[in-house]
Amino acid sequence: MTTTPTPPLRYVYAVCRPFGGVLPEGAAGITGEPPRLLHHDGLVAVVDAVPAEEFDEGPLRARLEDLDWLSATARGHDAVVASLTAVTSPLPLRLATVCRDDSGVRRLLDEGRDRFVRALERLYGRVEWGVKVHARKEATAGPRTPAGSPSGAVGGREYLRRRLRERDGREEARRRAEAVGRELHARLSAYAEATAVHPPQDSRLTGDADAVNVLNAAYLVPRERAEGFVALVGEVADSDGVRVELTGPWAAYSFAGIAEAAEPGTGTAGPEPSGPAPEASGAASGPGGAREGAA
Fold first, then answer.
1. DSSP E strands: which ranges in 17-75?
2. How far apart are CA 285 and CA 262, in angstroms?
3. Which of 15, 172, 186, 218 has its CA 20 to 30 A from that of 76?
4. Are strands 211-222 and 194-197 parallel, antiparallel or unpaired?
């Protein structure tokens, strides 16, 4: 007895306005193949055909617990969104946004249409830049016992003094970095159209064990103002135990909910994930709030 293969599902990377041309040559998504543009009523969904055996609701829930699979999928998702950013201003959807078929994608666009349109209008011609300020740990350590000194050579009182100096040095370095971060964020916020401040990154997760993150922010900047924005960050040179990191330009991941979080002109968006975030159910989810379950 033969079984009929389950038709592939539709993975949706992003929504955008219709744009001239095609995706850059070589753009490939999570399947290794170029995604497809599905046009519907003035909107475009960027979609991929994915196997139901992996992306149907049940299997997908298990896959989302597999960090290697999740990481590879996130890289493919981001590669497509990055390629879109070269030709338009996409509205990224969450990782693992899956619909049953093309009709389900159209329903997703219909049900979320108003918010999709508002967000795309707000994001058009704009990109996201990320700025992080770190306090260098090596600048906070204070004096140490010389190499080769016997462990018992330092008395209890002197040991306590050294530990206090190390603690005070760490606190002073952090205060300097926080002051730099506050001033820089204020200047960048006045320059950008919207901002989002994310929780500080754990150095154990970033692989940078020699620094403490004190500012982790994203800024929505018109493309024509990018050069000035970068120059503004560049005015704050790394010094005195403080390191400033600039990343971008990216698609506006942090501002995907901007149509809901702020009205035009407020200049601030509520905190959103700085990259694609997994949906535990594997259902479609976007600023429109529409859901087209894969199951």
1. 36-40, 43-50
2. 19
3. 218
4. antiparallel
